[in-house]
Amino acid sequence: MHPPSTRRQPVRLALAATALMALSAWAQAADMPAPTPTQPCRLSGLPNELQCGSVKRALDPAKPEGAQIEVHYVVLPALARNKLPDPVLFLAGGPGQSSINVASAVLSRFSRLNNRRDLVFVDQRGTGKSAPLECPDPGRRPLAEMADNDRQLKELEQCRDNLQKLPYGDLRFFTTTIAMQDVDAVRQALGANQWNVIGGSYGTRAALELQRQFPQTIRRLLIDGLAPPDMILPASFSTDTQAAGDALFDDCAKDAACSKAFPKLREQWAGLLKSVPRTVQVTHPVTGRPDHFVLSRRMLLSALRGPLYNPAMASALPAAIAAAAEGRFEGLIGLSSGGTPRKGMGLAMGMHFSVVCAEDVPRLSISTDKPGADFGDTDAQFYLSACKNWPRGSVPEAFYSIPKAPAPVLLMSGAIDPVTPPRHGEHVAKALGDQALHVVVPATGHGVMALACMRDVVFRFIDAKQDAEALKTDTSCAAKIPRPTFFLPIPDAPREAQP
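Above: the chain sequence. Below: its structure as tokens.
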């Protein structure tokens, strides 16, 4: 590329200044905040030029002149010239995921919306480029280290100590409440009176908190996989994953081919739980190298939970459990690592624990969730240990409330989701009131928006001109989606046919 001609620079600057003045005047006339200038930029995986910006925010809102952080955001400009004034904001999951880093992965779900609306991705404080709280990535470590709970807790302590040395290292100021104040500052920087908000998983909690604090700024709210503010994460993990695991065993028993291939699946799983801790040898699913380690109960339970997020992966669990019962753990360990995120797509664990240690763990004692028969309090004990000395932010009592919705809300739940199943969506829909529409998609796990037909539902809900029309959005397209066929290993060839 060649630099622009220097003779044209004064003209271009004059035109830009005129356009900015006109835009500012239009914003004032429409009672909208004037937008803050952004810079052209590009992101890996996205072909078009984007606009990048940031807002400066106080680390501690009570000390506006104290330590400052930069909250970064990216705008995918609408394709049409006559774009609509209400952009679409995406809030990522975790807690700890970078919205900007996942933009290329989720963009296809919102491509129709992008025709006439800007798409906005904000790195919540503690993630991505916004004062990140990253811990070392364990993805390529020996499995022995990943299976050692005590080692993991010590590494978290070391990470915490390192993070506290950063200029923005006061970990008390990364709660959802403060982060959503940052997000609303981005709305103001964009010059938007209202926007449409989409949140997935933990992003649903963030979206509900954004709506609680700034109800008049939300035109439409779409939340997928409900993790409400009053959900006590470590306790609900046990209850919900147990239910999803039991459903898997039940569905296999009802399926002629699966029940024939694995007639003792429940007994095999129970035997595995009784056999741990035990030393096993597998090929590392990431490095491909032989690995010996002591398989703990927590790691075995995690090996079941991970694939349950995605029914296509869960379809291979019966075969993997049966093989593990015979001493072959490659399938089970491989499936649990099958969702290993690409570089930059994982969680900022410092932010994750700053949120959960402040918002969830202090309320474990009042949880009414019944622990799962297999999962028990394994997760709760781990989080209690990790949070014991983690700096704890202040959370307002109102955070745990869910006010009536001021605008239409579409809630989506996967019927066999192991972490945010329909019971949480039902609870939130009831609290939101008449403006809420809850759709439960059968045979679907975590993340309903990923289904091809639901992308049209997302578009029609947000694009509807009237609120009443949005609340009548037809969501029946995914009602008949079946659970993926269970994976059956190829039987051994008859001995006489072997060379």
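Residues 140 and 260 are 37 Å apart (CA to CA).
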